[in-house]
Design brief:
Blueprint: H1 22-28, H2 32-35, H3 41-61, E1 63-68, H4 73-76, E2 82-84, H5 86-95, E3 100-104, H6 107-116, E4 121-123, H7 139-148, E5 154-157, H8 162-166, E6 170-172, H9 177-187, E7 192-196, H10 199-206, E8 212-216, H11 228-237, E9 242-245, H12 251-256, E10 259-260, H13 263-273, E11 277-281, H14 284-293, E12 298-300, H15 314-323, H16 332-347, E13 366-368
Parallel strand pairs: 1-2, 1-3, 3-4, 5-6, 5-7, 7-8, 8-13, 9-10, 9-11, 11-12
The structure holds 1,3-dihydroxyacetonephosphate (13P) and iron/sulfur cluster.
Residues 69, 85-86, 159, 173-174, 220, 248, 262-263 line the site of 1,3-dihydroxyacetonephosphate.
């Protein structure tokens, strides 16, 4: 498993183009303490001019930046107006009164914002910021699955395209997947649910419910690389370490972990339990962001990078706001169909995050693929 290359991964050579002036210093000095334990002063002076310019432009254009938990710390802590997991960002998109949303995350997250706020301008700083899960399935695949399993409701992970959401009965995220599957089975009066496209999340949900799950052979290219052996080695090398894993990891990884949850679920666990030593089995930037808020916790940091999330950088966010690019546009008919699936999810009165404690064998009924 590769080691984290740390926050310096996101320095863009173009960052040297903007000067660190007294005005920039005055506008950004109050932000530096948030990340000073991660970013040395010399590197901060490269980021600060971008941070100052982005924060000025946000006010001028009535824009908000929605930052996913996997953003690098200078984005997450210094320009993000709202930070969180996929569900929290979708909820923020639905309630913001800004006229422009810049999605500091991947393309499916920007599409989710556009679907919820079709009247707003939604920008993604890099159109190539994709996701292996979203790329694994199409709307046409879902239409075929619906023919094969008539009556079974379609629950789709939000890590999917707008076309796929348009074929969906209800969306879910990793923070509510178990509850959404049980709700869908009740509401559509079916013992079987199509849960797409993440086969590992599907198995981890199957371990928590009696609902029969049919899934798809999709996987997150970041989380599928973690193995149970990695966790055992980590425990051997770091006695007493608390292991927290994201449920996109294979079930055998979750079986070795102390707790599994969405990115915000992992962050909340650290805040509440303040473990002396912890390892987050998820994307690298999570540890950096959670560490700044929990200075007494020691983080063991082997991790995998998401190449899509790492396409988003301060210079690209600035360029996005300056040039109002790249605007996310979706066919209004697709928006109307997809919105229903996301709004059903948001409307569910969930009282807690989904837990993944493997009460049963993590077995699904079938894993479908494209013929
Ligand atoms: P969360 O909803 O847990 O933030 O996950 C999103 C994601 O892309 C994880 O890989
Ligand atoms: Fe997609 Fe995985 Fe990257 Fe999340 S971490 S955006 S699921 S590839």
């Amino acid at each position: 498993m590769p080691d984290s290359s740390g926050p310096e991964f996101n320095i863009n050579p173009q960052a040297r183009a903007l000067p660190y002036t007294e005005i920039v210093r005055a506008k950004t000095d109050h932000l530096y303490p948030k990340i000073s334990n991660l970013i040395p002063e010399i590197e901060w002076q490269l980021h600060a001019p971008y941070i100052a310019a982005i924060n000025d432009l946000k006010k001028e254009k009535n824009a908000v930046i929605l930052a996913h938990n996997y953003m690098t710390p200078e984005i997450f802590h210094c320009v993000g107006d709202f930070a969180g997991d996929s569900l929290q960002l979708a909820k923020e998109a639905a309630r913001t009164d800004a006229s422009v949303i810049v999605q500091a995350g991947v393309h499916f997250m920007a599409e989710t914002s556009k679907i919820l706020c079709p009247e707003k301008t939604v920008l993604i700083p890099d159109v190539k910021a994709g996701c292996s899960l979203a790329a694994s399935i199409t709307g046409a695949d879902i239409r075929l699955l619906k023919e094969k399993y008539p009556g079974a409701p379609v629950v789709t992970y939000v890590n999917s395209t707008a076309d796929v959401k348009a074929e969906t009965d209800i969306c879910c995220t990793s923070s509510n997947a178990v509850e959404v599957v049980e709700y869908a089975a009740r509401e559509w009066d079916s013992d079987t649910v199509l849960f797409l496209p993440d086969q590992y999340l599907a198995k981890n949900v199957a371990a928590m419910t009696d609902v029969k799950i049919i899934t798809w052979a999709g996987a997150c290219e970041v989380h599928e690389r973690f193995t149970a052996e990695d966790i055992r080695e980590m425990r051997e090398g770091n006695p007493g370490v608390i292991v927290l894993a994201h449920p996109e990891c294979p079930p055998e990884v979750l079986a070795e972990a102390d707790f599994a949850g969405s990115t915000s679920g992992l962050s909340n666990y650290v805040k509440e339990h303040q473990p002396r030593n912890v390892v987050l089995i998820t994307e690298c930037s999570m540890s950096d962001n959670v560490a700044t808020e929990n200075p007494k916790v020691n983080f063991v940091r082997p991790c995998n990078l998401c190449p899509h999330m790492k396409r988003i950088s301060l210079p690209k966010i600035l360029s996005s706001l300056q040039n109002m690019e790249h605007e996310v546009l979706i066919d209004p008919l697709v928006i109307d169909k997809a919105r229903q699936a996301i709004e059903r999810m948001i409307a569910l009165p969930l009282t807690r995050q989904s837990m993944y404690t493997h009460e049963r064998a993590p077995e699904v009924f079938a894993i479908e693929t494209r013929a």
